């Protein structure tokens, strides 16, 4: 690695998938105010709505957990198009 081009805040960070509770630790420069204690070590915490452990493409499940209701809004908006094709 070249010296002087990498950020100083590159550290271990915990990412938590809020839809299923899975937590993984990796290196990141993301800023966060929250922290979590894992195995006696405190890590900065970043909360995610969806990750590879809950995404339908990676899990093989066709159900998508949509906390913001975007899928329902889309279906309601284009309801006429769905009814016409059935």
TrEMBL record:
GO terms for biological process: translation. InterPro entries: Ribosomal_bL28/bL31-like_sf, Ribosomal_bL31, Ribosomal_bL31_B, Ribosomal_bL31_sf. The gene is rpmE2. Part of the 50S ribosomal subunit. PANTHER family: 50S RIBOSOMAL PROTEIN L31, CHLOROPLASTIC, LARGE RIBOSOMAL SUBUNIT PROTEIN BL31C. NCBIfam families: L31, PRK01678.1. Pfam families: Ribosomal_L31 (PF01197). One of its GO terms (cellular component) is ribosome. Keywords: Ribonucleoprotein, Ribosomal protein. Gene3D superfamilies: Ribosomal protein L31. It comes from the Bacteria. HAMAP family: Ribosomal_bL31_2. GO terms for molecular function: structural constituent of ribosome. This is Large ribosomal subunit protein bL31B. Belongs to the bacterial ribosomal protein bL31 family. Type B subfamily.
């Amino acid at each position: 690695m070249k010296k002087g081009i990498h950020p100083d805040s590159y550290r271990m960070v915990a990412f938590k998938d809020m839809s299923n509770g899975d937590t993984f630790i990796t290196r990141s420069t993301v800023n966060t105010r929250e922290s979590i204690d894992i195995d006696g070590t405190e890590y900065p915490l970043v909360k995610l709505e969806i990750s590879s452990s809950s995404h339908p493409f990676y899990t093989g499940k066709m159900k998508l957990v949509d906390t913001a209701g975007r899928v329902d809004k889309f279906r309601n908006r284009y309801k006429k198009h769905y009814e016409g094709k059935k």
